[in-house]
Amino acid sequence: MHPLERLINLVALLLDARRALTFEDIRKVMPAYQQSDIGSAKRMFERDKDILREVGIPIELAPTDVWEVEQGYRIPKDQYYLPEVTFTPEEVWALFVAAHAPGEDREAEQAFRKLSTGTDANVLAAMAERTAAPGADLSGPHLGSIADALARRRGLRFKYRPAQGKSGQRDVDPYALVFRSGNWYLVGLDRSRRDIRSFRLSRLLSRVKEIGPATQPPEGFQATRFLEAGPWGLGRPAARARVSFSSKVAWWAVPSVPGAKVLRVRRDGWVDVEVPASQTDSFVSWVLSFGPDARVASPISIRDQVVATLEGLVGE
């Protein structure tokens, strides 16, 4: 038996015991201490007990019966298990700011969500009461009102300026707020498009207005999936493009793109690939970074933009 397994078994035994257990009681239950040489078994037990105490597990001596004639070992549950964690609204906000300070990573965000789950203070409500936070772009006055509507499951209407295309009105059922790369994003159901989209709060052009009850997120919903990052930038890709790569770059270029799909490998070694794309500078720059080893076939709008950008570079 591995020493770690033996230690875990000992902890489980002492936690579940209704009374303090002597070494003989423990030896009868745990085969690891059932050697023929009782002295060796006792020394192994003493070493295990010392190791557990060193890592902070409270093994203590206690009477085995009401007469207190014999002493045994036990682990008090109230000392072993952590107490229930509760936070005031001020403490929730302090944790939130620390998790989203510059330089923090996704693990800090995940830790904040775990700590704040089940607390009496509603995290979103605490956010809604604040108008600014050190190190975090709260995107003007929108975060508080959106967080409040999200907590109460209310639909929202606002004017929005996308990264490409025309500005327009959006009716959205809010599902989640996500902080990514220094910006806040609302993820929710775009009612007119009947699809889940992400909206960068700094691109809102009007105040948000509530428009009645909102739908619940679908089963298995994960907000971060709608803030994917790739050559098209941050967020859900707007389209899919057909790009051909030479054999010199295809072997590493294709696996680097989330959602890329190989369509065929030509006789000359070129590989036709379908990749998530958008008509943005970031995607065009990505294609041009491969030089003559990448060619965009479709859609025409993206291909034309790649050509126009390339002609502009040549002209300069």
Produce a short descriptive summary.
With 316 residues, the chain is of the alpha+beta class. It is built from 11 helices and 13 strands.
Gyration radius from CA atoms, angstroms: 30 Å
Percent range for β-strand residues: 15-25%
Uncertain spans = 117-138
- Number of H- or I-type helical stretches: 11
Count of extended strands: 13
Order of helices and strands: HHHEEHHHHHEEEEEEEEHEEHEH
Tell me the span between the first and last alpha carbons.
72 Å
Shape: elongated
Strand order of the largest sheet: 6-5-4-3-7
Mean pLDDT: 79
Structural class: alpha+beta
Helix content: 25-40%
Largest sheet: 5 strands, antiparallel
Q: Care to describe what's here?
A:
The chain is of the alpha+beta class and 316 residues long. The protein is 35% helix and 24% strand. The chain contains eleven helices and 13 strands. The strands form four sheets. It has a five-stranded antiparallel β-sheet. A four-stranded antiparallel β-sheet has the order 11-12-10-13. β4 and β5 form a beta hairpin. α5 packs antiparallel against α6 and α10 packs across α11 (300-315). The longest helix has 17 residues, at 38-54. It is elongated, with a radius of gyration of 30 Å.
